Amino acid sequence: MFLQNRINSWISSVAPHNALPLRIELWNGRSFDFSPEAPRVTIRVPRPSAARYLLSPSLANLGTAYVEGIIEVKGRAADMIKVVNALARSSLRQTGRLGRVVRTYRHSRRHDAQAVRYHYDVSNEFYQQFLDPNMVYSCAYFEHGDEDLATAQLKKIDHILAKIRLRPGQTLLDIGCGWGALVIRAAQQYGARCVGITLSQNQFALAQERVRAAGLQDLVEIRLQDYRDVQGTFDRITSVGMFEHVGLKHLVEYFAIINRLLATDGLAMNHGITSTDPNNGETPYGGGEFIEKYVFPHGELAHLGEVLRAMQQGQLEAYDVENLRRHYARTCAIWTENFEAHEDQVRALAGDKRFRIWHVYLAGCAYAFEQDLISLYQIVCGKAGRNPAAMPWSRGYIYASES
């Protein structure tokens, strides 16, 4: 009776402020609707011991309970995420561990390789269920807003190659090359001589296979290599969706390495997720805690200001900065729809638990980008102190090249 009274009290304090399409079903057969609207999300608490997750509904608590099968949640992931965020806002104060937490980790070669392989080496077939045919696992670029995912991902790659003014025969290093889409495109469209590096064994194997299939072995080399071990000089350097793994304490070193590898008159572009908290904090209400535990071990997000500061300390000058936050919100929303459309295949490939992890992770990312809890910036840079006349006077060259 005491537990039932606590639940009744919690519902009566939260429900009046949230007309949510939510139904809560308890182990004793009782149910509660949070609005007259037909429920789009149902949370079932199958036993009294699971009620504690409901009574302290942080994203970490409810996410853990869902992933581990302690509670049952039914509904589209986008609806689930909106409901859970509303419950967290109404029930919790955004302070302490539920607020914008800053974490620091060791980022040795071994630790970084383990973290990358945990996330990316699920299986290539798993990622094929929700990515585009080229398997580009980063923010797409919706030039007009109505492109399908495959078109928007190719436009993103072309947008990057236009920004760095890639020219025929130049050398290009892609740090964190994924399954090879960018280096293959650069070789096909520009005849660039490319090196792509990754720490994922699965990405390495499939990227090599795709390079061979495209007949580009003479132009593209895929390496299983840490960025700290690359030697040589490159005319152009890209890093797309990789620097989130670098670590806050290593950002200056990371940019200094790019500076060392970059030709005197070269251009580099860093494309990555950033925190919108000026103090580099992670997403609130335990969202970052959930991602660290289940999705991206040792991932750290820096605020744009911190990125630009570290870039300058690494002797690189930022030439162009573009915010693509809304593009990533749309990308993640499409990934979520694809993921749900292939639910049976995903469960068969990865199991029920990993399905639940990614189900809420992809939709949670879409929500976080939509709500400006995290962002995405492309930053074009070059060696500090270059003659300013060496760069075009306007951004027009980017769009002229794309048209």
From TrEMBL:
Q: Does the record's keyword annotation contain Iron?
A: no
Any idea which UniProt keywords this protein has? Lipid metabolism, Methyltransferase, S-adenosyl-L-methionine, Transferase
Q: Which Gene3D superfamilies match?
A: Vaccinia Virus protein VP39
Q: Which SUPFAM superfamilies match?
A: S-adenosyl-L-methionine-dependent methyltransferases
Domain DUF7884: start-end pairs = 19-94
Residues annotated as the enzyme's active site? 365
Instruction: Report the PANTHER family cross-referenced here.
Output: CYCLOPROPANE-FATTY-ACYL-PHOSPHOLIPID SYNTHASE (PTHR43667:SF1)
Q: What is this protein called?
A: Methyltransferase domain-containing protein
Which species is listed as the source? Pseudoduganella guangdongensis
